[in-house]
From TrEMBL:
Residues 189-287 form the HTH araC/xylS-type domain. This is Helix-turn-helix domain-containing protein. Keywords: DNA-binding, Transcription, Transcription regulation. It holds the Pfam family HTH_18. SMART domains: HTH_ARAC. InterPro entries: Cupin_2, Homeodomain-like_sf, HTH-like, HTH_AraC, HTH_AraC-typ_CS, RmlC-like_jellyroll.
Length: 293
């Protein structure tokens, strides 16, 4: 089983997105095995003709015409065409971060995926037909704007993305998009970037708090208020997310992968992995292998 970090080539660098319509007329018997892959961009798909299956490590989505699915940033997933009939669908990849201007920043924490993956919002497309249709129309409209590139399409694209975020926010009846404390991106972004860049090393909270210009005690309270979990819990979750990717992108043994994500104590690594995934690393890989066979 091969897995890779898929590069997304934006059609307009300033818009930080790619949107494309795909047509697949091959019979099911000629489909190549799909690879598990991930990318930093959030992905939305709407099926227009035929059927498409989308799989993440924990969920399987059966998409028929008019159905949509949302896949969060860096979420492992793969697709499969289950039938012989022609398949037509639109895929939107977008980096949401640049769309949070000062007027939007108070909602950044809702969509940041610091604690809860955006994939969890797929419940609303099953429970709320109006939400599903509205998100589907937005994806189709974004594709039309990108293909036509008429005057002002950049403005239209920005409006569509904000409409998409608003639709998700207002139709989230389960209130999964919960805010925490106010997130000042100028303060928080360097902290999160530092954690991402140093997952394979010892991350000292005292050093991080100094770099953020805060005392150790204040930083601890500040981070939990902003993110909803402690700094240590956040770092551990990011380490395990990275380990999940390495387990199926590398041939390294589990011990080496644990060290690569900064956890040298194997008992601690197994305890954390099972806490977040409900299974051991070996069981996790076996589960993903079964999906693509």
């Amino acid at each position: 089983m091969e897995t890779f970090k898929e590069p997304i080539y934006y059609q307009n660098e300033h818009l930080c997105m790619k949107v494309w319509q795909f047509t697949n007329t091959n019979p099911k018997s000629r489909q190549l095995a799909q690879q598990w892959h991930y990318h930093k961009e959030v992905e939305l798909i709407i099926v227009q003709e035929g059927k498409l299956d989308i799989r993440t490590p924990d969920n399987l989505y059966y998409l028929s015409p008019g159905e949509v699915v949302l896949i969060g940033s860096n979420q492992l997933h793969h697709s499969h065409k289950p039938e012989d009939e022609p398949l037509v669908y639109i895929v939107l990849h977008v980096d949401l971060q640049p769309y949070f201007d000062p007027a939007m920043m108070m909602y950044y924490r809702h969509f940041s995926e610091m604690v809860r993956p955006l994939e969890d919002l797929n419940y609303m497309f099953l429970e709320n037909e109006r939400a599903k249709q509205e998100i589907g129309r937005i994806i189709v409209d974004i594709h039309a704007e990108m293909m036509d590139k008429t005057k002002g399409y950049e403005i239209a694209m920005s409006m569509h993305i904000k409409h998409l975020l608003l639709t998700l926010l207002r139709h989230d009846r389960r209130e999964l998009l919960q805010p925490f404390g106010f997130v000042d991106a100028a303060v928080m972004r360097p902290i999160l970037d530092y954690v991402e860049a140093h997952l394979g090393e010892k991350i000292d909270m005292e050093e991080v708090s100094r770099s953020a210009g805060m005392s150790y005690t204040y930083f601890s309270k500040f981070f939990k208020k902003c993110v909803g979990v402690s700094f240590t819990d956040y770092v551990n979750r990011q380490r395990i997310r990275k380990a999940e990717q390495l387990l199926i992108t590398k041939t390294d043994i589990v011990t080496d992968i644990a060290v690569a994500v900064g956890i040298e104590n194997m008992a601690h690594f197994y305890e954390l992995f099972k806490r977040y995934n409900g299974c051991t690393p070996k069981e996790y890989v076996r589960k993903l292998l079964r999906v693509v066979q």
